[in-house]
Specification:
Blueprint lengths: L1 E5 L6 H12 L3 E5 L4 E5 L6 E5 L7 E2 L5 E4 L6 H13 L8 H8 L1 H10 L7 E3 L6 H5 L6 E5 L8 E4 L2 H13 L4 E5 L7 E8 L2 E9 L14 E4 L4 H14 L3 E9 L2 E8 L5 H7 L3 H15 L1
Parallel strand pairs: 1-2, 1-6
Antiparallel strand pairs: 3-4, 4-5, 7-10, 8-9, 8-10, 11-12, 11-14, 12-13, 14-15
Helix pairs in contact: 1-9, 2-3
């Protein structure tokens, strides 16, 4: 097959591993920056044409691919999803569709969809622009977690221990027009969470992430450590169901163990491979390529 990965940083561990796995399966993979595309809608065929411009070179008309694998960050969500929709218009399967990617990237929308489907999540609130922030905060438990609606790798996640500081932070984010939600702080988790890596309808790997040095976020990019973890059947089923509800083929589902049972913190449409592959010793990249082969055959 001829595969295309959409990623701004081809030298990232995840990109290099996926390219290596593709080549080991005798597939060709290109890695292109979604922000270097020009998309066109035209009356005459092809209706969904696209041009790519490498750095310092002339643009060229892009040829077709068998499967698209999106790996772009939150800063490229708008252009990346427009590009996925263009490929979908050309009947090219994407390993995470544009609509599923958008649902996962909007933290509030994804939590709404999960809760509607009966998936337990931490108590969460979204305050409208004209709602008094102080009155909104009076309905929240302290300490509380503030999360921007887009963000990854722990960026945009803030622990506010006092109501006054929470109000101040929210007012600043509101002034900067950064939508933010409030979420219960699960103290009993003691700075740990679970990352479940879902491919297709299976949890193929899992790890427990552990925060370090007083940092409440357990993300790898925030200095967190990881260890192998044995998930319960309930946790596996919850991760798979959350992935299906958002319509994803590949996902990193973050769970937290609370006094009322496991809760879904969020679902990542472009989960990193480095920490979980090294912790679990599972070749996740090859299983993603196998999933790409499956959707190519079924399309």
């Amino acid at each position: 097959m001829k595969l295309l990965m959409l990623c701004r940083e081809p030298r990232l561990y995840s990109c290099e591993r996926l390219k290596e796995a593709a080549e080991q399966s005798n597939h060709h993979m290109d890695i292109l920056d979604p922000n270097r595309f020009l998309l066109k809608l035209e009356q005459n065929a092809p209706h969904f044409s696209m041009y790519y411009q490498p750095a310092g070179a002339e643009p060229y008309l892009l040829s077709d691919y068998d499967v698209i694998i999106p790996r772009f960050g939150s800063a490229s969500t708008r252009m990346g999803c427009a590009l996925l929709r263009h490929f979908e218009g050309r009947k090219v399967p994407c390993l995470n569709s544009s609509s599923a990617f958008l649902r996962a990237r909007d933290k509030w929308l994804s939590l709404q969809l999960l809760r509607e489907a009966g998936i337990p999540v931490p108590d969460t609130a979204l305050i409208g622009d004209e709602f008094n922030i102080s009155q909104g905060m009076s309905m929240a438990k302290m300490p509380t977690i503030l999360k921007t609606l887009s963000g990854a790798q722990g960026i945009g996640v803030i622990l506010a221990e006092q109501m006054q500081s929470a109000v101040s932070i929210l007012e600043t984010l509101k002034q900067a027009q950064v939508p933010t939600l409030l979420q219960d702080f699960i103290a009993e988790a003691q700075g740990t969470d679970l990352r479940c890596f879902v491919v297709g309808n299976q949890v193929i790997a899992a790890m427990k992430r552990i925060s370090q040095n007083g940092e409440f976020r357990a993300n790898f990019h925030r200095g967190g450590l990881a260890e192998k973890i044995q998930l319960t059947s309930e946790e596996k089923n919850m991760a798979i169901k959350a992935t299906q509800i958002l319509g994803l083929d590949v996902a990193g589902v973050d769970l937290i163990r609370s006094q009322r049972g496991p809760l879904v913190l969020e679902v990542n449409a472009s989960p990193g491979l480095e920490m979980i592959e090294k912790t679990s010793h599972i070749d996740i990249a090859s299983q993603i390529i196998v999933q790409a082969e499956k959707i190519a055959k079924s399309s």
